[in-house]
Amino acid sequence: MTFPAFTSSQGEPRSRGEELGSHRRAAIAANLAGYTDLFRVAGATPAQVRAWGEQALDRSAAWAPRLADEVAGIASGAGLEPWQVAVVNARTEILAALHATGEGECSTSVVLPGPGLPPRTVQTWDWHDHLRDAPMLWEFEPSPGHVVRTFTESGALAKIGVNSAGLGVHFNILRHDADTAEIGVPVHLIARRILDEAATVEEAAGIARSATVSASTVITAVTAGGAGAIEISPAGVAVIPPDPGGVLLHCNHFLDPALAEGERHATERPGTYARLRHLRDHAGELSGDDLTKRALALLSHGPDDAPVCAHPDPAQPIDQRWETLATIGLDVRAGRLRVHQGGPCQVTEATWQTF
Protein backbone atom coordinates (compact mmCIF):
# COMPACT_ATOMS: atom_id res chain seq x y z
CA MET A 1 0.00 0.00 0.00
CA THR A 2 1.36 3.40 -0.98
CA PHE A 3 0.14 6.98 -0.89
CA PRO A 4 -0.71 8.73 -4.16
CA ALA A 5 2.08 11.04 -5.36
CA PHE A 6 2.01 14.08 -7.62
CA THR A 7 4.79 16.22 -9.07
CA SER A 8 3.81 19.74 -10.10
CA SER A 9 5.00 21.09 -13.43
CA GLN A 10 3.86 24.66 -12.79
CA GLY A 11 6.05 27.28 -11.12
CA GLU A 12 3.62 30.09 -10.29
CA PRO A 13 1.39 29.67 -7.23
CA ARG A 14 -1.98 30.12 -8.92
CA SER A 15 -1.22 27.79 -11.83
CA ARG A 16 0.48 25.25 -9.54
CA GLY A 17 -2.64 25.21 -7.39
CA GLU A 18 -4.96 24.85 -10.37
CA GLU A 19 -2.91 21.92 -11.66
CA LEU A 20 -3.02 20.14 -8.30
CA GLY A 21 -6.70 20.92 -7.79
CA SER A 22 -7.59 19.49 -11.17
CA HIS A 23 -5.45 16.37 -10.68
CA ARG A 24 -6.71 15.67 -7.14
CA ARG A 25 -10.23 17.04 -7.58
CA ALA A 26 -12.13 14.05 -6.18
CA ALA A 27 -9.71 13.55 -3.25
CA ILE A 28 -9.88 17.23 -2.26
CA ALA A 29 -13.67 17.17 -2.32
CA ALA A 30 -13.69 13.99 -0.23
CA ASN A 31 -11.27 15.52 2.26
CA LEU A 32 -13.44 18.62 2.58
CA ALA A 33 -16.50 16.42 3.13
CA GLY A 34 -14.65 14.46 5.80
CA TYR A 35 -13.71 17.63 7.64
CA THR A 36 -17.22 19.00 7.28
CA ASP A 37 -18.48 15.87 9.05
CA LEU A 38 -15.77 16.18 11.72
CA PHE A 39 -16.58 19.83 12.44
CA ARG A 40 -20.31 19.06 12.60
CA VAL A 41 -19.77 16.29 15.15
CA ALA A 42 -17.55 18.65 17.15
CA GLY A 43 -20.37 21.20 17.30
CA ALA A 44 -19.79 23.63 14.42
CA THR A 45 -22.54 25.05 12.22
CA PRO A 46 -22.03 25.43 8.44
CA ALA A 47 -22.10 29.21 8.84
CA GLN A 48 -19.33 29.08 11.45
CA VAL A 49 -17.16 26.88 9.26
CA ARG A 50 -17.54 29.20 6.28
CA ALA A 51 -16.75 32.27 8.38
CA TRP A 52 -13.65 30.58 9.80
CA GLY A 53 -12.52 29.56 6.32
CA GLU A 54 -12.92 33.09 5.02
CA GLN A 55 -11.04 34.46 8.01
CA ALA A 56 -8.21 31.95 7.48
CA LEU A 57 -7.99 33.02 3.84
CA ASP A 58 -7.79 36.69 4.82
CA ARG A 59 -5.06 36.04 7.41
CA SER A 60 -3.13 33.93 4.92
CA ALA A 61 -3.33 36.58 2.21
CA ALA A 62 -1.97 39.22 4.58
CA TRP A 63 0.91 37.02 5.77
CA ALA A 64 1.80 35.07 2.62
CA PRO A 65 -0.01 36.35 -0.50
CA ARG A 66 1.55 33.75 -2.78
CA LEU A 67 0.28 30.92 -0.60
CA ALA A 68 -3.22 32.45 -0.58
CA ASP A 69 -3.02 32.56 -4.39
CA GLU A 70 -2.12 28.88 -4.39
CA VAL A 71 -5.12 28.07 -2.19
CA ALA A 72 -7.33 29.97 -4.64
CA GLY A 73 -5.76 28.06 -7.51
CA ILE A 74 -6.44 24.70 -5.86
CA ALA A 75 -10.05 25.75 -5.36
CA SER A 76 -10.39 26.75 -9.01
CA GLY A 77 -8.92 23.47 -10.23
CA ALA A 78 -11.05 21.41 -7.86
CA GLY A 79 -14.30 23.26 -8.60
CA LEU A 80 -14.57 24.66 -5.06
CA GLU A 81 -14.71 28.08 -3.43
CA PRO A 82 -11.43 29.43 -2.00
CA TRP A 83 -12.86 29.47 1.52
CA GLN A 84 -13.53 25.73 1.26
CA VAL A 85 -9.88 24.92 0.51
CA ALA A 86 -8.91 27.38 3.25
CA VAL A 87 -11.03 25.26 5.64
CA VAL A 88 -8.91 22.19 4.82
CA ASN A 89 -5.73 24.18 5.48
CA ALA A 90 -7.17 25.68 8.68
CA ARG A 91 -8.56 22.47 10.16
CA THR A 92 -6.20 22.77 13.18
CA GLU A 93 -7.46 26.30 13.84
CA ILE A 94 -11.12 25.29 13.48
CA LEU A 95 -10.70 22.34 15.83
CA ALA A 96 -8.97 24.64 18.34
CA ALA A 97 -11.87 27.09 18.05
CA LEU A 98 -14.20 24.20 18.86
CA HIS A 99 -12.02 23.08 21.81
CA ALA A 100 -11.83 19.62 20.24
CA THR A 101 -9.61 17.03 21.93
CA GLY A 102 -8.65 13.43 21.39
CA GLU A 103 -6.48 10.68 22.81
CA GLY A 104 -4.53 10.02 19.62
CA GLU A 105 -1.89 12.11 17.90
CA CYS A 106 1.69 12.09 16.76
CA SER A 107 5.03 11.11 18.28
CA THR A 108 8.30 12.47 16.84
CA SER A 109 11.91 11.43 17.35
CA VAL A 110 14.99 13.22 15.99
CA VAL A 111 18.51 12.13 16.91
CA LEU A 112 21.73 13.89 15.84
CA PRO A 113 24.29 11.07 16.17
CA GLY A 114 27.40 13.21 15.75
CA PRO A 115 29.57 15.09 13.26
CA GLY A 116 29.45 13.74 9.74
CA LEU A 117 26.52 11.40 10.44
CA PRO A 118 23.02 12.12 9.09
CA PRO A 119 20.13 12.87 11.44
CA ARG A 120 17.96 9.87 12.32
CA THR A 121 14.29 10.82 12.37
CA VAL A 122 10.93 9.07 12.55
CA GLN A 123 7.39 10.01 13.49
CA THR A 124 3.94 8.54 13.62
CA TRP A 125 1.11 10.56 12.10
CA ASP A 126 -2.18 9.87 13.85
CA TRP A 127 -5.49 11.21 12.63
CA HIS A 128 -9.16 10.29 12.39
CA ASP A 129 -9.77 7.02 10.61
CA HIS A 130 -12.53 8.35 8.35
CA LEU A 131 -9.86 10.60 6.79
CA ARG A 132 -7.39 7.80 6.05
CA ASP A 133 -7.66 8.42 2.29
CA ALA A 134 -6.74 12.10 2.60
CA PRO A 135 -2.90 11.86 2.58
CA MET A 136 -0.80 12.34 -0.52
CA LEU A 137 2.82 13.06 -1.45
CA TRP A 138 3.54 16.25 -3.39
CA GLU A 139 6.69 17.56 -5.07
CA PHE A 140 7.00 21.11 -6.39
CA GLU A 141 9.46 23.98 -6.90
CA PRO A 142 8.32 27.15 -5.08
CA SER A 143 11.32 28.92 -6.60
CA PRO A 144 13.63 27.83 -9.43
CA GLY A 145 15.95 25.04 -8.28
CA HIS A 146 14.41 24.81 -4.79
CA VAL A 147 12.53 21.50 -4.51
CA VAL A 148 10.04 20.68 -1.77
CA ARG A 149 8.64 17.22 -1.09
CA THR A 150 5.85 16.94 1.44
CA PHE A 151 3.52 14.41 2.99
CA THR A 152 0.26 16.31 3.27
CA GLU A 153 -3.49 16.00 2.86
CA SER A 154 -5.27 16.59 -0.42
CA GLY A 155 -5.87 20.33 -0.61
CA ALA A 156 -3.46 21.27 2.20
CA LEU A 157 -0.33 23.17 1.21
CA ALA A 158 2.12 21.15 3.33
CA LYS A 159 2.69 19.15 6.48
CA ILE A 160 5.72 16.90 7.07
CA GLY A 161 8.45 17.36 4.47
CA VAL A 162 11.94 18.15 3.22
CA ASN A 163 13.50 20.66 0.88
CA SER A 164 16.56 20.69 -1.35
CA ALA A 165 18.25 23.22 0.95
CA GLY A 166 18.76 20.37 3.42
CA LEU A 167 15.97 21.14 5.90
CA GLY A 168 13.09 18.92 6.95
CA VAL A 169 10.11 19.30 9.27
CA HIS A 170 8.08 16.99 11.47
CA PHE A 171 4.66 18.08 12.72
CA ASN A 172 2.66 17.54 15.95
CA ILE A 173 -0.46 19.27 17.23
CA LEU A 174 -0.54 21.05 20.60
CA ARG A 175 -3.31 22.68 22.66
CA HIS A 176 -2.96 25.83 24.77
CA ASP A 177 -5.27 27.92 26.92
CA ALA A 178 -4.45 30.86 24.63
CA ASP A 179 -5.92 29.14 21.56
CA THR A 180 -8.80 31.21 20.24
CA ALA A 181 -11.68 31.20 17.77
CA GLU A 182 -10.30 34.38 16.16
CA ILE A 183 -8.70 32.43 13.33
CA GLY A 184 -5.08 33.29 12.60
CA VAL A 185 -2.50 32.11 10.09
CA PRO A 186 -2.98 28.34 9.63
CA VAL A 187 -0.09 26.37 11.08
CA HIS A 188 -0.01 24.22 7.94
CA LEU A 189 0.88 27.33 5.97
CA ILE A 190 3.69 28.04 8.43
CA ALA A 191 5.09 24.58 7.72
CA ARG A 192 4.76 25.25 3.99
CA ARG A 193 6.53 28.60 4.17
CA ILE A 194 9.34 27.05 6.20
CA LEU A 195 9.80 24.40 3.53
CA ASP A 196 9.65 27.05 0.81
CA GLU A 197 12.13 29.48 2.37
CA ALA A 198 14.23 28.08 5.24
CA ALA A 199 17.59 26.34 5.22
CA THR A 200 18.33 26.51 8.97
CA VAL A 201 16.48 25.98 12.22
CA GLU A 202 16.93 29.67 13.00
CA GLU A 203 15.31 30.70 9.72
CA ALA A 204 12.44 28.30 10.35
CA ALA A 205 11.87 29.76 13.82
CA GLY A 206 11.93 33.28 12.39
CA ILE A 207 9.18 32.40 9.93
CA ALA A 208 7.10 30.91 12.75
CA ARG A 209 7.54 34.03 14.87
CA SER A 210 6.37 36.25 12.02
CA ALA A 211 2.87 34.70 11.98
CA THR A 212 -0.04 35.64 14.21
CA VAL A 213 -1.67 32.33 15.11
CA SER A 214 -4.84 31.20 16.84
CA ALA A 215 -3.93 27.54 17.37
CA SER A 216 -0.90 25.67 18.68
CA THR A 217 1.45 23.17 17.11
CA VAL A 218 5.08 22.10 17.15
CA ILE A 219 7.14 22.02 13.96
CA THR A 220 10.39 20.15 14.53
CA ALA A 221 12.95 21.47 12.06
CA VAL A 222 16.03 19.37 11.33
CA THR A 223 19.12 19.84 9.18
CA ALA A 224 22.35 17.89 8.81
CA GLY A 225 23.86 19.96 11.59
CA GLY A 226 21.04 20.82 13.96
CA ALA A 227 17.45 20.49 15.10
CA GLY A 228 14.88 22.39 17.10
CA ALA A 229 11.27 21.75 18.10
CA ILE A 230 9.53 25.05 17.33
CA GLU A 231 6.57 25.25 19.70
CA ILE A 232 4.01 27.69 18.29
CA SER A 233 1.11 29.17 20.25
CA PRO A 234 -0.87 32.42 20.49
CA ALA A 235 1.05 32.82 23.77
CA GLY A 236 4.41 32.82 21.97
CA VAL A 237 7.01 30.74 20.14
CA ALA A 238 9.78 28.73 21.81
CA VAL A 239 12.49 26.51 20.36
CA ILE A 240 13.40 23.31 22.21
CA PRO A 241 16.96 22.14 21.40
CA PRO A 242 18.20 18.54 21.45
CA ASP A 243 19.57 17.26 24.75
CA PRO A 244 23.36 17.01 25.20
CA GLY A 245 23.27 13.59 23.53
CA GLY A 246 21.62 14.99 20.40
CA VAL A 247 18.18 13.53 21.18
CA LEU A 248 15.05 15.61 20.53
CA LEU A 249 11.68 13.98 21.25
CA HIS A 250 8.22 15.49 21.09
CA CYS A 251 4.63 14.34 21.49
CA ASN A 252 1.56 16.52 22.09
CA HIS A 253 2.36 18.65 25.11
CA PHE A 254 4.52 21.74 25.50
CA LEU A 255 8.08 21.27 26.72
CA ASP A 256 8.98 24.95 27.08
CA PRO A 257 8.40 25.78 30.78
CA ALA A 258 6.65 29.10 30.14
CA LEU A 259 4.33 27.79 27.44
CA ALA A 260 3.66 24.62 29.46
CA GLU A 261 1.90 26.74 32.06
CA GLY A 262 -0.98 27.05 29.59
CA GLU A 263 -0.94 23.40 28.51
CA ARG A 264 -4.41 22.07 27.71
CA HIS A 265 -4.14 18.88 25.65
CA ALA A 266 -2.15 16.92 28.21
CA THR A 267 -4.36 17.91 31.12
CA GLU A 268 -7.38 16.50 29.29
CA ARG A 269 -5.71 13.55 27.48
CA PRO A 270 -2.55 12.60 29.40
CA GLY A 271 -1.55 9.75 27.07
CA THR A 272 0.97 12.16 25.51
CA TYR A 273 3.15 11.85 28.64
CA ALA A 274 3.20 8.06 28.38
CA ARG A 275 4.16 8.29 24.71
CA LEU A 276 7.06 10.63 25.49
CA ARG A 277 8.26 8.27 28.22
CA HIS A 278 8.17 5.43 25.71
CA LEU A 279 10.31 7.43 23.28
CA ARG A 280 12.81 8.28 26.03
CA ASP A 281 13.00 4.64 27.11
CA HIS A 282 13.81 3.65 23.51
CA ALA A 283 16.19 6.48 22.64
CA GLY A 284 18.94 3.96 21.92
CA GLU A 285 16.95 2.18 19.22
CA LEU A 286 15.75 5.55 17.87
CA SER A 287 19.40 6.54 17.39
CA GLY A 288 20.15 3.75 14.92
CA ASP A 289 20.74 4.22 11.21
CA ASP A 290 18.08 1.68 10.15
CA LEU A 291 14.69 3.36 9.66
CA THR A 292 12.76 0.11 10.00
CA LYS A 293 14.32 -0.51 13.41
CA ARG A 294 13.59 3.07 14.44
CA ALA A 295 9.96 2.62 13.43
CA LEU A 296 9.72 -0.65 15.35
CA ALA A 297 11.06 1.16 18.43
CA LEU A 298 7.82 3.16 18.33
CA LEU A 299 5.74 -0.01 18.53
CA SER A 300 3.55 0.30 21.60
CA HIS A 301 -0.19 -0.09 21.97
CA GLY A 302 -2.53 1.18 24.64
CA PRO A 303 -4.21 0.72 27.01
CA ASP A 304 -1.57 -1.24 28.91
CA ASP A 305 1.35 0.46 27.14
CA ALA A 306 1.85 3.93 25.71
CA PRO A 307 -0.54 4.42 22.75
CA VAL A 308 2.18 5.35 20.23
CA CYS A 309 0.65 3.11 17.57
CA ALA A 310 -3.06 3.97 17.48
CA HIS A 311 -6.00 1.86 16.30
CA PRO A 312 -9.56 3.17 16.15
CA ASP A 313 -12.45 2.01 18.30
CA PRO A 314 -15.39 1.73 15.88
CA ALA A 315 -17.82 2.20 18.75
CA GLN A 316 -16.64 5.80 19.23
CA PRO A 317 -17.90 8.83 17.27
CA ILE A 318 -15.69 9.94 14.38
CA ASP A 319 -14.04 12.72 16.37
CA GLN A 320 -12.76 10.15 18.90
CA ARG A 321 -11.57 7.45 16.49
CA TRP A 322 -7.79 7.69 16.06
CA GLU A 323 -5.52 5.68 13.80
CA THR A 324 -1.81 5.85 13.02
CA LEU A 325 -2.20 6.54 9.31
CA ALA A 326 1.49 6.93 8.48
CA THR A 327 5.00 6.37 9.81
CA ILE A 328 7.55 8.74 8.29
CA GLY A 329 11.32 9.29 8.28
CA LEU A 330 13.21 12.23 6.76
CA ASP A 331 16.43 12.03 4.76
CA VAL A 332 17.46 15.68 4.80
CA ARG A 333 20.74 15.08 2.98
CA ALA A 334 19.01 13.50 -0.02
CA GLY A 335 15.93 15.73 0.26
CA ARG A 336 13.54 12.81 0.36
CA LEU A 337 10.89 11.18 2.52
CA ARG A 338 10.43 7.54 3.40
CA VAL A 339 6.80 6.83 4.19
CA HIS A 340 4.93 3.75 5.41
CA GLN A 341 1.16 3.67 5.12
CA GLY A 342 -0.01 2.66 8.57
CA GLY A 343 1.47 2.30 12.03
CA PRO A 344 4.74 0.81 13.31
CA CYS A 345 3.07 -2.56 13.93
CA GLN A 346 2.80 -3.04 10.16
CA VAL A 347 6.28 -1.85 9.13
CA THR A 348 8.65 -4.12 7.26
CA GLU A 349 11.64 -3.38 5.05
CA ALA A 350 9.38 -3.81 2.02
CA THR A 351 6.61 -1.38 3.08
CA TRP A 352 8.57 1.87 2.75
CA GLN A 353 7.68 4.26 -0.04
CA THR A 354 10.60 6.53 -1.00
CA PHE A 355 9.67 9.97 -2.30
Automatic annotation (TrEMBL):
Biased composition (Basic and acidic residues): 13-22
Coiled-coil spans in chain: none
Biased composition (Polar residues): 1-12
InterPro entries: C45_proenzyme-like, Peptidase_C45, Peptidase_C45_hydrolase
Residue ranges, annotated region (Disordered): 1-22
Record-annotated Peptidase C45 hydrolase domain positions: 122-343
NCBIfam families linked to this entry: C45_proenzyme
Record-linked PANTHER family: BETA-ALANYL-DOPAMINE_CARCININE HYDROLASE (PTHR34180:SF1), PEPTIDASE C45 (PTHR34180)
Name of the protein in its database record: Peptidase C45
Organism name: Nonomuraea diastatica
